[in-house]
Amino acid sequence: MKNDKHKDAEIFARLLRETKLSDKITIGKFILQGKKGVKDTIQYNQAGLDILRNEHEYTFPILDGDLQVSLQLYENISNYYRLFCYTRINGKQGMTFSVNLTTEKESENVIYLTQRIKFAEQYEGSATLAQAHRRQKQIVFCDLLRKLGFDITDNSDLILGIFDPTKKSLVNTSVDKFLNDFIVVSILKGHFQGNKGYQLEILPTYNKLDYIFTGKDDEIENLPLKIVENKSKRNIPLGMRYKVLKKDDFKCVACGHNANDGAKLHIDHKTPFSLGGLTELNNLQTLCSDCNISKSNKYIDA
Ligand SMILES: [Zn+2]
Fold first, then answer.
1. Looking at the chain, which residues constitute the CATH 3.40.1800 domain(s)?
2. How far apart are CA 55 and CA 72, in angstroms?
3. Is the pLDDT score of 96 beyond 90?
4. 172 CA from centroid of ligand 1 (Å)
5. How far is the CA of 283 from the centre of ligand 1 (A)?
6. CB count in 10 Å sphere of residue 61
7. How far are the Cα atoms of 14, 161, 184, 205 from residue 169, in angstroms, in the given order?
8. Worst-scoring range by mean pLDDT, 1-15, 50-64, 132-146?
9. 3-state DSSP helix/strand/coil percent for the chain, to nearest 5?
C-alpha cells in the first residue's frame, strides 16, 4: 500500500512540477500580477525533501511590500503527503495554508486535495472572545470563497482538487487552475489570519481586535457565536464525490463543460437538502462553479 500511495503522490507532484503557471493569479475579478521566483530562500522543512523542488515560487508586489510565495510538497513520517504554501514579506515568514493528499477506500486510489478552513491564531485577552472571533472569520472566509466559486462543504472543508492517478489528471479542474486556486486561498487566508505580515488592499480587514478586549464578559453578546454546524446528513462524503463525477462523465450536467474546457466541477444536491433532498447518489449531480452559483442564486431569489 505504501508504495502505491508513494507512486501516486509522485505522479501528482510530477504533474505539478511540469505545469507552468503564468505570472499572474486571478482572485475573482481581480488580477494579482507577479513574477516567477523569490529573492529569499523560504525553507521550512529539511532541504532536499521538497518534492516540488522550488518549481512553484512567485513574488507578488502588494502595498505592504514584495509578497514571496513558495509551494512545497512533503511526505511525513506516517507516509502522508501535504502541499504547503509559505509566504515571506519584509523578513516575516509563515505557513498560510496547506492541503492534504487524502485517499478514500470508497474511491480506490483517487486523491482528494482537501483541507478544513479554520483559524488557529492566538490573541491576548479573553479566550472566549478570541474563539468567537476565529469562528466569525471562518464563516466570513468560507462565504467569500464560495462567492469566488470555490467548493466548500457544509463542514467548511475546501475541496480544491480531485486527482485520478490512473488518468494522471485532475478530474474536477485543470492543474493550472488548481495551482492558481491554491495560491489564492493561501494568500487570502494569510490576509484573514492577520499575523503573516501583510494585508491585501482589496479586502476588508478582520483583525482589529484591540477594541473588543476590554475584559468585560457582556461584550461576548455583541459577537455572533454561531458555530459552523456539522450538518452530517447534508454533507457529501469525499468518496461519494468521485462517484458522482464518474456517473456524470466528469461534465457539468447543465452546460456540458468539463475540466479541460476550464470548468471547475462541484457536486450539488439536485433537490436542495433544505427542500428535503437527500444525500444519495440519485439526488447528487455535477455542476460547474458558474452553473452552481446561478442555481443557488435562483433558490435565494425564489
Ligand atoms: Zn455548467
1. 233-302
2. 9
3. yes
4. 12
5. 17
6. 12
7. 11, 10, 21, 37
8. 1-15
9. 35, 25, 40
User: CATH number of the domain at 233-302, out of 3.30.530, 2.60.40, 3.40.1800, 1.10.10?
Assistant: 3.40.1800
| CA–centroid distance for 275 within its chain | 28
How remote is the CA of residue 258 from the centroid of ligand 1, in Å?
A: 8
CA of 290 to the centre of ligand 1 (A): 6
Per-residue pLDDT reduced to its tens digit, 207-245: 655 444 444 444 444 444 444 444 568 889 888 999 999
**Ligand 1: centre distance to CA 255 (Å):** 4
- 241 SS3 class: helix
DSSP-assigned beta bridge partners for residue 284: 269
d(CA 170, CA 259): 8
Alpha-carbon distance of 178 to 171, in angstroms, equals: 11
> Rounded CA gap, 250 and 161, in Å?
13
**CB-proximal residues (5 Å) to ion ligand 1:** 252, 254-255, 288, 291
